[in-house]
Amino acid sequence: MITISCTKKLFELSSFVEETNISTNDELFSWHANVFRMARRNNLILMNNKTRYCFILFGIKKEHFRDFNELFVSSLIDNLAYEGIPDSNIKNYIENASSIRFTKTYDRSVLGSMTDMVKMTDFLIEEYLPITEMNILELNKINNHTPIVKLNNFPDIMMKSALGI
User: Locate the DUF6933 domain: which residues (predicted)?
Assistant: First the structure.
């Protein structure tokens, strides 16, 4: 089971139902999510708690939240595959994503890392505009090869290691 901890702003924008009974979950299957504005659009950043691996969904709209589970899984698969992670490792991870639950955020360290990643994206996005022609997978890959001081490592390397590569 995947747990996505959402900010208050994201709960207000989406139709997610907050679950309050939180059992401890493996941090590898826990994510944080936040919505932010950039390039005059609502965008969503999702970050893994353990590895700080993240991906950004640009131009998110209300209809995207209706089928969010499929959107999350397909975007995660696309980003992990773009990183060069073998399909078998991705499949093993995704098998645990059969259901997704939404909770409140609880880790200020992850929230801080997400804020830093959004700032990094704001700096890098000029090279990827216009958004209609943007290669978001390449931008996410560059973001994930940015060192995270808290981990003293790179998110892409940490995720590959966590997935057994």
Answer: 3-150
CB-based contact 155:146 (threshold 8 Å) = yes
Query: How do the residues of the chain divide into helix, strand and coil, expressed in percent and rounded to 5?
Result: 50, 20, 30
Distance in angstroms (rounded) separating the CA atoms of residues 148 and 121: 14
Tens of pLDDT, residues 128-157: 666 666 678 999 999 999 999 888 999 999
- Distance (Å, rounded) from C-alpha 65 to C-alpha 104? 17
Distance of CA 83 to the CA centre of its chain: 14
pTM of the complete model: 0.91
Q: Where are the domains of the chain?
A: 2-162
20 in Cβ contact with 116 (< 8 Å): no
The correct answer on CATH 3.30.420 for the domain covering 2-162 is yes
